[in-house]
Write a structure and sequence with these properties.
Layout (H helix, E strand, L loop, with lengths): L13 E4 L5 E8 L6 H5 L13 E7 L4 E7 L3 E3 L11 H4 E3 L5 E3 L6
Antiparallel strand pairs: 1-2, 1-5, 2-3, 3-4, 6-7
């Protein structure tokens, strides 16, 4: 198992889920699975991801709600949709630059 595999996606990147209708902005990356065993086994076996790959924390949205998602790299695709993700926590965590890219906010207050 290669735990030093470089993450394919970066913090601030807009992505969408390969199987489910949601998308989001990455706000943290785990180099390999770091959630509970109960969470992992709750995923149906036929779509359960392998653990030795990067996992991403997303500020996610779908048609009806906003939430935080934890998604394996194998289940993410770049989201090239021009519409921004509108999760209400994005302004707390990110600034959007002149190119429409999400930049992690600095931690000190203004």
């Amino acid at each position: 198992m290669d735990v030093n595999k470089a993450a394919k996606f970066g913090i601030g990147q807009q992505v969408r889920h390969r199987l489910f209708p949601f998308r989001g902005i990455i706000f943290d990356v785990d180099p390999e699975f770091a959630n509970s065993e109960d969470w992992w086994t709750s995923i149906p076996e036929e779509i359960r991801p392998v653990k030795n790959q990067p996992f991403y924390h997303l500020l996610a949205e779908n048609e009806t709600s906003y939430y935080v998602a934890y998604v394996s790299e194998q289940n993410l695709l770049p989201d090239d949709a021009p519409e921004p993700v509108n999760h209400p926590q994005i302004p707390e965590m990110f600034e959007i630059d002149d190119h429409g890219l999400y930049k992690k906010r600095t931690t000190h207050a203004h």
